């Protein structure tokens, strides 16, 4: 049964290898937000 599970995952793994879905812009943080400033952090509001 393990071999069938690996064969079923092969197309997805191959697609992820060839066309990665990681998008850095989705994980980019510009800095502390307004909640951090309200807590009294050292964030500078612009």
How would you characterize the overall build of this protein?
There is one protein chain. The protein has about 45 residues and is mainly alpha-helical. It has 3 helices and no strands. The protein has helices spanning about 1-20, 25, 35-40. The radius of gyration is 21 Å and the shape is elongated.
Q: Count every beta strand, where a strand is a DSSP E run of 2 or more residues.
A: 0
Identify the overall geometry.
elongated
Secondary structure: helix percent: 55-70%
Give me the Rg, rounded: 21 Å
Q: Please report the number of helical segments.
A: 3
Distance between the termini: 59 Å
Point out poorly predicted stretches: none
Task: Summarize the model shown.
The chain has 46 residues and is mostly helical. It has three helices and no strands.
Topology of this structure?
Elements: H1 2-18, H2 24-27, H3 34-38
Feature tags:
single chain; elongated; 46 residues; 3 helices; mainly alpha; 57% helix
């Amino acid at each position: 049964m393990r071999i069938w599970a690996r064969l079923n995952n092969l197309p997805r793994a191959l697609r992820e290898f060839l066309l990665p879905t990681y998008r850095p812009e989705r994980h980019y943080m510009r800095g502390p937000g307004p909640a951090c400033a309200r807590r009294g952090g050292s964030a500078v509001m612009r």
